[in-house]
Amino acid sequence: xxxxxxxxxxxxxxxxxxxxxxxxxxxAGILMMPRGNAMLVxxxxxxxxxxxxxxxxxxxxxxxxxxxxKQYRLIEWRDDMKRLFEITGVSNTPTAFLFNDTQLKxxxxxxxxxxxxxxxxxxxxxxxxxxxxIYDGVRKRAADAESGGTAEELWAFFVDSIRSNLHVILAxxxxxxxxxxxxxxxxxxxxxxxxxxxxxxxxxxxxxxGSAFLDNLTLDSDDTRAKISSVFSVIHLxxxxxxxxxxxxxxxxxxxTPTHFLxxxxxxxxILTEKRTExxxxxxxxxxxxxxxxxxxxxxxxxxxELEKKKVVCAQSQKDCENLLVEIVSERRVADExxxxxxxxxxxxxxxxxxxxxxxxxxxxxLNVALPALQKAMAEVEKLDKSAIxxxxxxxxxxxxVETVLAxxxxxxxxxxDWTTAKKVLGEANFLQSxxxxxxxNVSATIMKKIKGYVSxxxxxxxxxGAVSKAAGALCTWVHxxxxxxxxxxxxxxxxxxxxxxxxxxxxxxxxxxxxxxxxAEVTAKVNRLKQKYDDSVGEKNRLRAEADQMELLLDRADKxxxxxxxxxxxxxxxxxxxxxxxxxxxxxxxxAAAFLSYAGPFDTQYRSNLVGGWLxxxxxxxxxxxxxxxxASFCALPTDVRQWNxxxxxxxNFSTENGAISVRCSRWPLMIDPQNQANKWVRKMEESxxxxxxxxxxxxxxxxxxxxxxGLPVLLQDVLEELDPALEPVLAKALIKVGNRxxxxxxxxxxxxxxxxxxxxxxxxxxxxxLKGSISFS
Length: 779
Prior knowledge:
Layout: E1 3-5, H1 11-14, H2 18-32, E2 38-41, H3 48-59, E3 62-64, H4 74-90, E4 95-100, H5 107-119, H6 131-144, H7 151-165, E5 166-172, H8 178-185, H9 188-191, E6 194-197, H10 203-213, H11 222-250, H12 258-382, H13 386-393, H14 400-412, H15 419-426, H16 431-436, H17 445-455, H18 462-468, H19 470-564, H20 566-599, H21 605-621, H22 632-636, H23 639-647, H24 654-665, E7 670-672, H25 678-687, E8 692-695, H26 701-711, E9 715-718, H27 729-732, E10 736-739, E11 742-747, E12 750-754, H28 756-765, E13 767-769, E14 777-778
Parallel strand pairs: 2-5, 2-6, 3-4, 4-5, 7-13, 7-14, 8-9, 9-13
Antiparallel strand pairs: 1-10, 10-11, 11-12
Helix pairs in contact: 2-3, 4-7, 6-7, 10-11, 10-12, 11-20, 11-21, 12-19, 12-20, 14-15, 14-17, 14-19, 17-19, 18-19, 20-21, 26-28
């Protein structure tokens, strides 16, 4: 079941009051009586509805409450009454019907309540077509109770069940003449209810409740807590007394309710905590400033010593840079000489490399003439296999061309040229490998002379031999290729010898050049290292010089700052002591400020002055620390804020400033009695474009208020008379409902989700005017 954020959540605190126990147990006893009904009479905020819910819980019965919307009329009222009758008459469920006079949108509502109290029914509530369902709903219980089964008897049983299970609790306000008129016109309100009149709380109850609110507040001792709760009681009672005096002197009503006292108790905790935090932060800032001054003074001394050390290091760094520069110049001269020599040697060796390449290219060109024939022959040899060789070996008496080819092959291998030797060589396993790997570069002149006789013969042609035997033709091609290549190689040999000599000489010179280049690289690397070291030294020197200059600049500034703030040292110390004293005095000042926020709004300047004087006297009687010349405006509003308010149109007099502070700081919606339209102009200027302005005649009033609640936008409800739309009651009372982890505010028939951020914005933004109710702050 939703839990309402109102006085209900502090029942344990209220129960400390004997009078509250009397009211609660008394109403619970009424609800336990057969056909017991109660009328709770008290001004708004006196705890009537909270106590009714508590009493219903004690009696163990549910609570039925109607939900008022802007379109709520007699039809919706009758539908709710039918639901209530079904709960109590058909379902036989004991239920308390809680009705507040603010929900009275039509007098017919009260007439129906009067009928319920007098007879237990509402005439003409049901149509004829609805009665059979009711008869069926109670027929079984009527039979169990041995009641008759006719329509009249079932209806009588239904009405009797309603009167037995339904307990009406009326929360009425005695303010004005409406209550007296209603009692005269509807006697059932008096004759059929037990009246419980809510009077003012006694002093001991106020003290007990106030003390309970201080449980979680950090105070010096329990004695201090008792003194503060005692002042709570004095403040509340004095506000009641001044309200009575104002009624006598000015004929102006002001109703002081327990809601004001609860607002005082909660507001004191908030204001005291905020003020302590504000003053503590100011004190800590000054203390940190003093610590920084001491730290700066000590830092100046340390920096002076460090500056002298850095100057010495900087001078030594300058000297090292100069020495390095001399060494770099000497090494660079040596490196330049070696570079010139290496460059000359490199140029000469380059020319020799070109000459060697020309010799090699010439020899290679001549060899390339013979290479194609050799490659072709080797390709033919690659095609030979053992079967081809076996084909030749198979000849007992080979053909002339085959025998001639094999004779030439045997000459190349240095063997006899007869067929027997040739056949034996052909039978060797590595014969083909010997053909392929033949040393063609080292063929002797004798072999060349013998082979010349074969290759110059007209029949020793690969085509002719190949016609007889393909294997012999391939070997013939090979012999021709070897002869051609060896002939060319013989001519190229002198060039190769010259090339080899040139290459050997070039290799020696290149090795010498490589060594010279390595030596040059070492010298160059040394020069580069020295240069890098010099650059690093110069960078370090510049860094040290920059640090020294920066330190000297900072030292000069710090010295000027320390000397310039030397006079502030004593003033800051005095301010710290003053702020510490103000933190102590905030214990009493916050108490008077919270009282001013809760009670002083409806009073004029003279009454406010007398109230504050009395409250300060009560604070001092309890020996609580407070400011001698306390003023609410200076305590709760910063001078800059007041100046901004004045710019925005708020009059500059003290009374208006107090009203502005109340409007901004109060936790409830401020009600502004504004005959000269000053507050209206100020609010419009202060909130500017974000402000939603509505009145009771606006068709979109509830929609704009809903947007204000959901989006945290300020709303100004202006030109309000003595009566308001009952749908606004939950908003005016801040009746937050907790559903699980959600906080919900009901507006009409909608439930609007609230979070802390949105709620805090709305709390300071909603502004209402000319509505005289106890749940609203006055200014």
